[in-house]
From TrEMBL:
Keyword hit for Cytoplasm: no
Occurrences of domain PAC (ranges): 424-478
Keywords on record: Kinase, Phosphoprotein, Transferase
Region (Disordered): 660-682
Pfam families hit by this protein: HATPase_c (PF02518), HisKA (PF00512), PAS_3 (PF08447), Response_reg (PF00072)
Residues with PTM 4-aspartylphosphate: D885
Cited InterPro entries: 2C_system_His_kinase, CheY-like_superfamily, HATPase_C_sf, HATPase_dom, His_kinase_dom, HisK_dim/P_dom, HisK_dim/P_sf, PAS
Protein name: Histidine kinase
Record organism: Aureobasidium melanogenum (Aureobasidium pullulans var. melanogenum)
Length: 966
């Protein structure tokens, strides 16, 4: 009932009615008598008759009733007015489910209906003129069109010029006794027609019409007359509208079904030369008010008649030309109207989009200093349209929304836009208001529109609230900074732990080597009191135990570091050219003595598929492959050492397609869901190479199969469920059984190499772990291709040979008994740890080296300045190689090596100084950094002296070869 449109409620069996205020205005004088009355008692008007008929449908059938464009005559302003309505009556069910009331909705569509009627009437008139060739035919067709369709016109009359003799020159007429208005008529026209005869009418009986009207007779009586109206229309040369007191009595007639005409129009018709041809009189329907729309409609009728009258009075050739001209004009007008309509619809659509758009939109005219904005702009800036209108007199009204600290930036950007006439974008802070003290940031993008002179006449743009985005960016930056700090702290922690654990482990290994070497030397010397066999065996066992414990501790430590790298996504695969068979042999050599002490027989089974698909070399990561095989081998040794039958077989196979299961029907474990690459860890060139190597497909791809089979105690189903989980293991095998990380890491490392692992086991009979990894057959390089040497570490892609602590092997003692490859070398050991410095120096001296020591990098540089490699003419101390630690006080190893290489470039040294980094910094990034700084090789702690001697020999020999060629 609060609706601005008419609404009515019909309720109860009596169908009583109540309605809102808008409906009361519709029924007029029937209000308030109808309010609350039964509908049957107020059927005194058409509107209630319609409602009664519609209520029958609603009450009896329970369905809604609809009337479209229903004509209703309503009393408005003391007269009846024709209106049109869309009526919809909705039934309302009662408690029993049957309709006992209804709601009526009224929508006024009068303007729409009248507009359609007038459009149709105008088209009928134009269509009737299409074949007219004379004036009498024109009047006949016009009246016929009105008779067919003329809801706005109650009657029509056509008075035509009597005959051609009636045309006389106005200059030859005697001055009649008429009013000054008539004098104006004579002086303003070239031709004057005295009499007009009735040539046709519509809607009026002929008895009430004057057959001839003489406008030359001037008898002013003070009352309006039709001749006076004709003379005035002829004087103005335009149609006249006569209404109320200005309407002559002969035009104020009663028309059936319409009422008494209160308004009429006089349409003067002339030819192209201005000669009067006729007057058309139209009596307008009294049931429709004379509005602006009605005035335009009458003008359209007048224009159409005048054009057609001019056309038919022209000569035939001109008629054809004029008709073609009219058709062209009509087509162009129609096209123009359609274009305007389309443009208007597009504009309305754009305005709707602009109004509902979530981003601010603005149009600013610099010359007129006006600004138009949408609702989103006002919401974003926190202003109102009234506040914005108050600032239009200012040069830049939008500046009132800019925060003070960004005012200069905004003005500068605006000046750049106006002078350069190019688009502009700026981000600034909105001025805080009392209603919204929260800081808001916006991004404004402005585009200039140029006029024909190249000047900016309009600026349009977009305003986007970026407060949330900036807040998220700030939060993301903070979290990124926190994550980087956490990552850095983690790396520092790992480096510290690595450094502090690897240094003593290195000392332990070197001490055990020295003990064993001393025992062997004692046994080989003659004339020295021999020790008892029991004593020697005890010392040897103690040395083995020290080495085994250190190796075990180092293995656990390496596993923890590997897990940390996996969690931090720092672990990458670095393929290189390797022999898989050599990797397996190396693993067995490392743990051969441990297996031998437990009476375990180890062997390698090379299957036919291996020799078929792998000739000799493949591209794979040797360290990761060795780590996997070692984990599985040590696991097999732990399972087997307490069993009656003790054997371990490592099988090698290959295939060119990815296997589904192995020959022993091993079911592979489902892969672990991979984490996405960390955005905090920058991808290195090696990372991209590894990813491309593993993800791409090539004809050179080959899958390496490895199986480790033991005759150990086997696993039950429940124990197999614990496999490959972090820090879990099925059983405990002795005092040093592992950390529970070995199988977990093996699975992770295998999957990083595009492979999978599986297991088969029978409790009491043994276990077989099988896995495969993706490799690639190497591309054979030409024999003439240049090869990088250990003395050229800066070559891109050079991979350091990182020393990993291996299980103690008696073959190492054979190495120490052979002539030392470094005997006679002059070595500088740069180490800040006194214990490690002393042990390394002692071991090297035992190998026949001349050893010098330095505590940090600065000491090393000072020592180098006194050696024979300087350009000084004074003979200095001989020097062949430098063993350089990295983490040292005063001057670290990286700074020292960079200084050494710089001095070489400057010519301070006469030759290149071979330098090997001996460090506990074992991360790949740290090793790459050392090589890039200028190291020739890197040996990571813990290391054993035999390994170090080999690396020293290779570096020195390589440098000597380069020096010889130079």
């Amino acid at each position: 009932m609060n609706s601005p449109d008419p609404r009515i409620l019909i309720f109860g069996d009596q169908r009583a009615i109540i309605y809102n205020e808008a409906f009361a205005a519709v029924i007029g004088r029937h209000h308030p008598q109808c309010l609350g009355s039964p509908l049957a008692d107020v059927q005194v008007d058409k509107i209630f008759e319609v409602l009664w008929d519609m209520s029958l449908t609603a009450y009896d059938n329970g369905r809604g009733a609809r009337r479209t464009r229903q004509e209703l005559l309503l009393e408005r302003g003391g007269s009846m007015e024709q209106t049109f309505w869309n009526i919809f009556l909705s039934p309302l069910p009662g408690l029993d489910g049957y309709c006992d009331s209804a709601v009526g909705e009224f929508t006024d569509v009068t303007d729409l209906v009248v507009q359609d009627q007038r459009r149709s009437q105008g088209l009928d008139i134009l269509d009737s003129f299409s074949k007219v060739e004379s004036l009498p035919e024109l009047w006949s067709q016009f009246l016929g069109a009105l008779d067919k369709n003329a809801p706005d016109i109650s009657y029509a009359m056509v008075y035509t010029a009597f005959d051609h003799s009636c045309f006389v020159r106005s200059e030859g007429l005697p001055t009649p006794d008429i009013t000054p208005r008539h004098e104006t008529l004579q002086s303003a026209t070239s031709y004057f027609v005295k009499q007009y005869q009735l040539s046709g009418s519509l809607g009026l009986p002929e008895r009430v019409l004057e057959p001839i009207i003489d406008i030359s007779i001037a008898e002013p009586s003070g009352t309006p007359s039709l001749p006076d109206a004709f003379r005035e229309a002829l004087d103005k040369k335009d149609l006249m509208v006569l209404a109320d007191e200005a309407l002559p009595d002969e035009l104020s007639v009663h028309v059936a079904d319409s009422g008494t005409v209160r308004c009429a129009s006089i349409l003067p018709i002339s030819n192209l030369d201005g000669k009067p041809l006729a007057f058309v009189v139209l009596g307008l329907d009294p049931r429709r008010p004379f509005t602006e729309q009605m005035s335009r409609f009458v003008h359209c009728i007048h224009e159409a008649i005048c054009k057609q009258a001019i056309l038919v009075t022209l000569p035939r050739d001109q008629q054809q030309f004029q008709r073609k001209y009219e058709e062209t004009t009509m087509a162009l007008s129609t096209e123009l109207r359609l274009s305007i309509l389309k443009a208007k619809k597009k504009e309305e659509k754009f305005l709707r989009i602009a109004k509902s758009a979530p981003l601010g939109m603005y149009l600013y005219s610099p010359k007129e200093r006006t600004i138009q904005v949408n609702d989103a702009y006002l919401k974003i800036t926190g202003t109102t349209k009234e506040d914005l209108d108050k600032t239009t007199a200012l040069e830049l009204p939008w500046l009132q929304t800019v925060s003070e600290e960004y005012m200069d930036v905004a003005i500068k950007e605006w000046q750049h836009l106006m002078t350069e006439k190019t688009p502009s974008a700026i981000e600034y802070k909105i001025r805080d208001s009392s209603d919204n003290p929260t800081s808001r940031w916006v991004s404004a993008t402005s585009f200039p529109d140029l006029d024909e002179h190249g000047e900016v006449y309009l600026i349009h743009g977009w305003l986007v609230d970026i407060s949330d985005r900036l807040a998220k960016d700030t939060l993301l930056a903070q979290r990124l900074e926190d994550a980087l700090e956490t990552k850095t702290a983690t790396e520092h922690f790992l480096d510290m732990v690595s450094h502090e654990m690897r240094n003593p482990l290195s000392a332990i290994f070197q001490c055990s080597d020295e003990i064993l070497n001393t025992i062997q030397t004692h046994n080989n010397q003659s004339g020295v009191p021999s020790m008892t066999t029991t004593q020697l065996k005890g010392l040897e066992d103690a040395a083995h135990t020290i080495a085994l414990c250190a190796q075990h501790q180092n293995g656990i430590f390496n596993d923890i570091l590997t897990v940390s790298k996996l969690d931090s996504q720092l672990l990458t695969i670095m393929p290189e050219k390797i022999r898989p068979f050599d990797i397996v042999q190396r693993a067995l050599r490392m743990y051969g003595q441990e297996a031998k002490r437990s009476d375990i027989i180890t062997s390698i089974d090379v299957q036919d598929t291996y020799t078929k698909h792998i000739s000799e070399f493949v591209m794979a990561d040797p360290n990761r492959l060795l780590q996997i095989i070692i984990n599985l081998l040590t696991n097999a040794i732990n399972h087997t050492r307490s069993c009656r039958e003790r054997s371990i077989v490592i099988s090698l196979g290959a295939s060119v397609t990815e296997p589904e299961d192995t020959s022993n029907q091993t079911v592979f474990m489902p892969p672990t869901p991979r984490r996405q690459s960390s955005p905090l860890t920058p991808a290195t060139e090696q990372d991209h190479f590894s990813a491309a190597f593993l993800s791409s497909c090539s004809e050179q791809d080959v899958y390496l199969h490895v199986a480790v089979q033991d005759t150990g105690c086997g696993l039950s189903e429940s124990e197999m469920g614990l496999l490959f989980k972090r820090f879990s293991q099925p059983k405990t095998y002795g005092q040093y059984s592992g950390s529970g990380l070995g199988l977990f890491l093996s699975k992770e490392l295998i999957e990083l190499q595009a492979g999978r692992i599986g297991v088969t086991s029978t409790e009491g009979l043994g276990t077989t772990f099988s896995f495969y990894i993706k490799c690639r057959k190497p591309i054979e390089e030409p024999a003439s291709a240049s090869m990088s040497t250990p003395s050229s570490p800066r070559i891109k892609g050079h991979r350091p040979r990182m020393s990993r602590t291996e299980a103690f092997d008696d073959k190492d003692l054979e190495f120490t008994r052979q002539p030392s490859p470094v005997r006679g070398l002059h070595v500088l050991v740069v180490e800040d740890n006194p214990l490690n410095q002393r042990l390394v120096a002692k071991q090297l001296r035992n190998q026949g080296c001349t050893v010098h020591t330095a505590d940090h990098g600065l000491d090393a540089l000072e020592f180098l300045s006194k050696t024979n490699i300087t350009s000084s003419s004074t003979p200095g101390t001989k020097l062949d190689i430098v063993l350089l630690d990295i983490e040292m006080p005063v001057m670290d190893g990286l700074t020292c090596i960079r200084k050494i290489r710089d001095l070489e470039q400057e010519g301070f040294y006469t030759r290149r100084v071979p330098v090997i980094a001996v460090t506990a910094n074992a991360r790949d990034e740290q090793i790459r950094e050392a090589l890039e700084a200028g190291m020739d090789d890197v040996v990571t702690k813990p290391f054993r002296i035999p390994e170090l001697l080999v690396r020293m020999s290779e570096v020195v020999s390589g440098q000597h070869e380069i020096d010889r060629r130079l």
